[in-house]
Amino acid sequence: MDNSNNENIEKSEFDAREFRRKETKLDVYDWLSDLPEAQQANDLVEVRFKNTRKGYYRNTAHIKLEVGDIVAVEASPGHDIGEVTLIGQLVPLQMRKHAVKTDVELKRVYRKAKPNDIEKYEEAKAREHNTMIRARKIAEELGLNMKIGDVEYQGDGNKAIFYYIADDRVDFRQLIKVLADVFKVRIEMKQIGVRQEAGRIGGIGPCGRELCCAGWMSNFVSVATSAARYQDISLNPQKLAGQCAKLKCCLNFEVDAYVEARKKLPSKEMVLETKDNTYYFFKADIFARLITYSTDKNIPANLVTIDAGRAFEIIALNRRGIKPDTLEREGQGKDSPRREYQDVVGQDSLTRFDNKKRKKKGNGGNGEKRNNRNSSQSPGTGQQRKKRRFTPSNNNTNNEGSNNKDN
Fold first, then answer.
1. Number of CB atoms found within 10 A of residue 327's CB
2. Of the candidates 229, 317, 353, 366, which lies 20 to 30 Å from 219 by C-alpha distance?
3. What are the residue ranges spanned by the domains of the chain?
4. Cα Rg, the chain, nearest whole Å
5. pLDDT per position as a tens digit, 191-228
6. What's the predicted TM-score (pTM) here?
7. Would residue 325 be called left, alpha or beta, if left means φ above 0 and alpha means ψ between -120 and 50 degrees?
8. What is the CATH number of domain 127-192?
9. Cβ-contact 100, 93 below 8 angstroms
10. pLDDT digit string (tens) for 60-107?
11. Are 59 and 65 in contact (CB under 8 A)?
12. Are 281 and 268 a contacting pair, CB within 8 Å?
């Protein structure tokens, strides 16, 4: 009996380790974890299920729970299996953040998950992929303009949640009847957006890192093309769109810094006048505070780059009716040396790991190489080639003549 109990305990611990999610996207840092009295301040518990779904429950049975425990909670119908992610005084704050009313009667935590509970959950989880593929075919046969992106079974296998994407409103009443008849479970349909679908599926972005929506983002903010304009990014739809076919969320990350920095530069509509030409805005390096002007409004012509301070000086002079000789300051003409970019460390060189070729000094090395090439082409032994090399040209001609006579 003792051996069987030990095997069941080891099996339950192993299954619990397998059950725990690898995602850290929705984890909340408990900054009150060092205070024992804060952990048992109330009976509210936060439980996380598959992907991004969370729920809040009451521990009415006063079970001693810790973060990471696998529990069976009340569901409608039956029960569900989830992982405890937060306990104590921070749970009401999270409920307030997600607009969950505390005065509403919450569902209960039944018990810590037993080996049988986890086995049922694993069996239900193994059916999710095949159910999703079959449901997509059924929706296509019914002619519904929707895409079923994911399926989540309840812990006891009596209920399935179908997550779908649709551009317009979809009448899926007939679909629910067909799905309930085919899979013999209770059906629940939830509509999600394309950004949420990308976060659920995951992937690698063009930056080489995990998608932000799959790694840490939980709230999605609308992204406009003006964010790309502020950062002087080319309005190429293929480069601005992410894997969800929407504008990349990272376009909003630095746009505020660009907006604040652009306030310190002259307006694009300002025209600079000199005695020779009229200059129009062409482009700007916002953080370096360098502005390039062109003599033509539509095409780059006679480009001149000046700093923002000089541009403000010329604008002030033009307002007073004064036109300077040139845009550059005195002594800063085309012939004046300009500071160019220097790669001190050599990190940008593509050949920095290649072996450097040895440079041969003087003409001796080239002469030897040339002589070796000639010697490889001429017949005879090495001593004969050496004699021919130092034989004067006149003797060569005489010898050739004598040989011809002999012949």
1. 21
2. 229
3. 2-116, 127-192, 199-261, 265-334
4. 38
5. 988 888 888 788 888 888 888 888 788 778 889 889 99
6. 0.61
7. alpha
8. 3.30.300.20
9. no
10. 888 888 888 999 999 988 899 999 988 888 888 888 888 887 777 889
11. yes
12. yes
Find where tokens 């957006």 sit.
193
pLDDT, tens digit, for every residue of 340-380? 445 545 555 656 666 655 555 555 445 444 444 444 444 44
Asked if residue 148 lies in contact with residue 162, where contact means CB atoms within 8 angstroms, the answer is: yes
pLDDT at 132 over 90: yes
> Which token pair is 305?
């780059």
The secondary structure of 209-240, three-state, reads: CECHHHHCCCCCCCCCCHHHHHCCCCCCHHHH
**Bridge partners of residue 80, in order along the sequence:** 73
- Residue 231 tokens, joined: 């950062």
Residues 91, 57: Cα–Cα separation, whole Å: 10
DSSP state letters, 120-178: HHHHHHHTHHHHHHHHHHHHHHTT---EEEEEEE-TTSSEEEEEEE-SS----HHHHHH
